[in-house]
Amino acid sequence: MTLKQLEAFCWAATCANFAIAAERLHLSVSSLSKRISELEVSLGMPLFDRSAHRALLNEAGQALLPRAQALLDNAATVRVTFAPSAGLAGRCAFGVGELSALTWLPQFIAQVRRQHPQLTLEPYVDVGSVLESRVARGELDFAIIAGRSSHYDILSQPLSQAQFIWVAAPAMAVSSKPPALRSAVDLLHAGQPMIVLPPSAGTTRLIDDWLLQHGITAVERINCNNWGGIAGMLIASVGIGILPAGWSQKLIDQSLLEPLIDSELPASLSYSFQWRRGDNRPLLDQLRRLCTQCVDFTVDMSRPLSA
């Protein structure tokens, strides 16, 4: 029995299928299956029920899994303890939303590369629901997602919050001379559409709560899955919408957009670090700490970073 065999077993046991587990370990499916078969031979018993459409853990496999995970965790701790200068190594696939990619993600990657030059990061940008599913299937090590996960198999640790403001093109926001900013409520009641992220986005809950609070039951929504696309339509006076407060400031400074009277939404959107239950690798613990230091949705990466 070897650590590589146990590693192959644990990934196969916790990923949606052997193909995903093999990809995470950068092995072929046949190489992964060979390691698991060798482990089963050394233990003298099968660990998976292979009679179904996909291999499932049998009783012996379920009993072995927590013990195998504990052995791998201990081995990783020994490596970090006795070779601390080496830092983390290998590959880490993780997911973030577009707002993270526009704000703190570049600085986070730069920080990780300085501290752990042997660790290769593979960031994926997508909406939260997709990233959460990929974490659950084992395709991603972790994800930074709005809200807390509703999956039992996924743990969530709150990290930071993002504030959003209502904005519109200056011509749409002005209602009289001298200029006076109108409110989002006025503009929506007047029939202006909202330019928003798709319904699966975390901001949908914020907007729905705000609409309910102001008694707005019918409004046209134009969905776009890209903040840049939303900002472009707002500048073009297609409608009104919310934008991240920090990121949108440059557009306000350039007089391309104006904050509306009721600019800030009453609630901010919380983001959390989400990872699979039972995955206690030092890799996740250290990257979770770095995320706590780096996640900042007020950062605008289109501007030069201060020294």
Automatic annotation (TrEMBL):
Pfam families according to UniProt: HTH_1 (PF00126), LysR_substrate (PF03466)
Record keywords: DNA-binding, Transcription, Transcription regulation
Family annotation (CDD domains): PBP2_LTTR_substrate
InterPro entries the UniProt entry points to: LysR_HTH_N (IPR000847), LysR_subst-bd (IPR005119), WH-like_DNA-bd_sf (IPR036388), WH_DNA-bd_sf (IPR036390)
Recorded GO MF terms: DNA-binding transcription factor activity; transcription cis-regulatory region binding
SUPFAM superfamilies referenced in this protein's UniProt entry, alphabetically: Periplasmic binding protein-like II (SSF53850), Winged helix' DNA-binding domain (SSF46785)
Domain HTH lysR-type: 1-58
Family: Belongs to the LysR transcriptional regulatory family.
PANTHER family: HTH-TYPE TRANSCRIPTIONAL REGULATOR, LYSR FAMILY TRANSCRIPTIONAL REGULATOR
Protein name, UniProt field: LysR family transcriptional regulator
The organism of origin for this protein: Herbaspirillum huttiense subsp. nephrolepidis
